Amino acid sequence: MSGRVLAIARCLVKRGPMELLPETAISLDKGVEGDPRGHKKGRQVTVMSREAWEAACTDLGKELDWTTRRANVLVEGVDLAFTKHRQLRIGEVLFTIAMQTQPCFLMDEFENGLRDVLKPDWRGGACCTVEKAGIIRVGDPVEVLA
Predict the structure, then answer these.
(1) DSSP string computed for 63-123
(2) 134-137 and 141-145 strand pairing
């Protein structure tokens, strides 16, 4: 499977607003540069697919901006469902997909019912551990490796 990066975002403080970036450094110890959520192994960077987000919004009956999910990277053309322990390459950066991103209570604070529509088929995205650091950019190729 191959696709591309559509958007990159980070928050500078927990629960703060999401900031869109044209590119960002990804480090082994902190994930997305400047994002305080990236220090936790297995949850350093969150990646979500446009197709999964659109399916969730359709089920919700409302169009929401992808940053409502608070993921770091929005991709298209890549199915992340059930890819635990597989590797994900984004541009020059290599990740291991650690787990499905579990939608938390915040999702319903942003939009009632969002948490439930994100649960099926990994619609909330994937939590990743950084294996090889580097820079990712909007437009970079994305590939789930075998």
Answers:
(1) ---GGGGT-SEEEES---TT-TT-EEEETTEEEEEEEEPPP-HHHHHHSTTHHHHHSGGGT
(2) unpaired
Q: What is the pLDDT of residue 133?
A: 98
Contacts of 49 (CB under 8 A, 6+ apart): 3, 74, 75, 76, 78, 79, 80, 125
Instruction: Confirm whether pTM is higher than 0.85.
Output: yes
Token pair belonging to 92: 């020059």
Render pLDDT for 34-80 as a digit per residue (tens, 0 to 9).
999 888 878 899 999 999 999 999 999 999 999 999 999 999 999 99
CB atoms within 10 A of CB 132: 12
Per DSSP, 138 falls in state T
Q: Which two tokens stand for residue 31?
A: 């994930």
